[in-house]
Amino acid sequence: xxxxxxxxxxxxxxxxxxxxxxxxxxxxxxxxxxxxxxxxxxxxxxxxxxxxxxxxxxxxxxxxxxxxxxxxxxxxxxxxxxxxxxxxxxxxxxxxxxxxxxxxxxxxxxxxxxxxxxxxxxxxxxxxxxxxxxxxxxxxxxxxxxxxxxxxxxxxxxxxxxxxxxxxxxxxxxxxxxxxxxxxxxxxxxxxxxxxxxxxxxxxxxxxxxxxxxxxxxxxxxxxxxxxxxxxxxxxxxxxxxxxxxxxxxxxxxxxxxxxxxxxxxxxxxxxxxxxxxxxxxxxxxxxxxxxxxxxxxxxxxxxxxxxxxxxxxxxxxxxxxxxxxxxxxxxxxxxxxxxxxxxxxxxxxxxxxxxxxxxxxxxxxxxxxxxxxxxxxxxxxxxxxxxxxxx
Amino acid sequence: xxxxxxxxxxxxxxxxxxxxxxxxxxxxxxxxxxxxxxxxxxxxxxxxxxxxxxxxxxxxxxxxxxxxxxxxxxxxxxxxxxxxxxxxxxxxxxxxxxxxxxxxxxxxxxxxxxxxxxxxxxxxxxxxxxxxxxxxxxxxxxxxxxxxxxxxxxxxxxxxxxxxxxxxxxxxxxxxxxxxxxxxxxxxxxxxxxxxxxxxxxxxxxxxxxxxxxxxxxxxxxxxxxxxxxxxxxxxxxxxxxxxxxxxxxxxxxxxxxxxxxxxxxxxxxxxxxxxxxxxxxxxxxxxxxxxxxxxxxxxxxxxxxxxxxxxxxxxxxxxxxxxxxxxxxxxxxxxxxxxxxxxxxxxxxxxxxxxxxxxxxxxxxxxxxxxxxxxxxxxxxxxxxxxxxxxxxxxxxxxxxxxxxxxxxxxxxxxxx
Lengths: 392, 418
What we know:
The structure holds 2 protein chains of 2 kinds. Chain A contains 11 helices and 8 strands. Chain A is an alpha+beta fold. Chain A has 2 domains: 48 residues; 246 residues, MetI-like (MetI-like fold). Chain A is globular, with a radius of gyration of 28 Å. Chain B folds into 2 domains: 100 residues, no CATH class; 229 residues, MetI-like (MetI-like fold), CATH 1.10.3720. In chain B, helix 5 crosses helix 8, helix 11 crosses helix 13 and helix 14 runs antiparallel to helix 16. The longest helix of chain B has 33 residues. At the A-B interface, helix 1, helix 3, helix 4, helix 10 and helix 11 of A face helix 3, helix 4, helix 9, helix 10 and helix 14 of B.
């Protein structure tokens, strides 16, 4: 009997072990096969594997950069420029997609028939057209129809929109660091105050006007730095300059290139449709009885929204919306299609073309996206955990 | 405050409705005349006030007709659906004004001022869209650079597919299984051979010449058929008890899900050839298909995993208690139920796949969007970007909207069954 049992166990163990060993073996063999081939191929082309090329001079220019860059800088710096551009367009996209998505999602639940229908059609139209087509549409069709530099669309003489881009005033700060610190101090004190307010609410049932206090802090502290801290702000307004008989340019200010505008527009309008659906599902997901119960214990409408509905709706909304943020970040790689210098275009495009180091460059690019995705999802998981119901 | 404002009441219903209706009529009239005849009859007012005049007049009018339980069914309906408070009244007016202002120009561009007749750009004289462009390039938009004389092959491949799918609904249930096997395993080879040629006296057409809408369908259909089994095994692998298999699956899934498709396509174009023995050449389209399939398989795996997790534990235990092994349990008991649960999710993945196909332009394959890009840079047809993208957008929209509607219906049908 014992012997039989032992045999059975052994065969079970074998049954578990064999597929695992086979999988690992298969993986190892594939990796070895690929490595040998890659070594042969690179040997034939006279290149060796390594990341030394990152410190070489890149000798290509990038049309749009947040940091100081030109052709004499290294490939590593070109990579950084591309990465920053990706982060820039993703953050702009996430901001506007959230704004638009929440508005449309609430609009879909409006009592007003017209608003509900308009929101529904917005979602149906923009969700079902491929993002790349939307980007092409904004860039090649809509923004190309803007006027030439000479007759730009004028916004109150401080900002100009034309086919070359959108020119906005540049902020010129003196003692910016003091202003920056004051904002950080304001944010830290808001965190402490809201913690204190929550404690007051939980222990003594007192409601502090946290919102007004925080808003006041956020406005008053930076304002004080203007009055006594020596901070000042002036604007550099873009000026139209005539270079030759027919050539006009705007000098000064900040120019937002049309590639960035169309990419941000398409990304936020496309992603907003998905966020709108999440918001709608989240609000619908809160049980009606919850609202009624809250009303019956005498909470005001604002309190019901803030203390009962939103915490529960957010718990439904946040996980799928995180996914949408991730998708938006990944979709920003479509920038390559309209030559917005993001990481794919700069690094996996131009840099790869010049160096021919396919394996290194594609791996770096993919790893960058992987770590961007993973860091967003780690942050959102942390937030999710914080928002989860704490059952007592 | 209450005494100062005139409050519409039920007693003076007729008066208030007449007054309110008149004001609303005036505000609509103002906008209509402004839009169609370019006459502004409130021009005596200051410019800002004149601009907002219809909105203000209309809001006051809607305020006057907002009488609860007036007894008039139509009025009550209007009030609850469009006019429940001041904010809603303003929003209603804004939406209607926007429709009046923007719908006619869009319609004009689309139909009334558009050009349909002719064969060259010079035939487009109207101020609207130049649909001649789409008409002339239509063949290319559908078939890409595929030779004109051979296009019947693509047509017949697709007609065959539709006929097979339609027939599979009518054949007796006993034969259905064989039909599906034929459709999934045999038909793709026949279809591919028919389109690529090279045998049976058919002229060989290289994949570089394939393109347009037909390529969109080919890529999405093949990727769907291929990614489904891979996704299924990955999903099972991720839920496996064997650590080596589980971690391999997790790594594989998360790797593909963490990177954008465009980098995967770049990889298939420039990095993949480096990993193959020197001198082997894999066709561009095949490389793209492998890349898209692996990418979508990771997403498919997550969808199927959702279905596996949603099944009650009792199903596994019941299957095990009958003495079923791992594979028999999954193929006979678990997967049929789990897959039925996630049909909407699978449809959504397929939708995403169709929307992702235009990306294959990065390796130089031109499906519909790519062909539009090519056509609009043709020196004879410059400045036709708007028409091209609107056309491509419409085509994709119709396909995707129909599919999403179908998947929503399916979802509803399945949810009532349970």
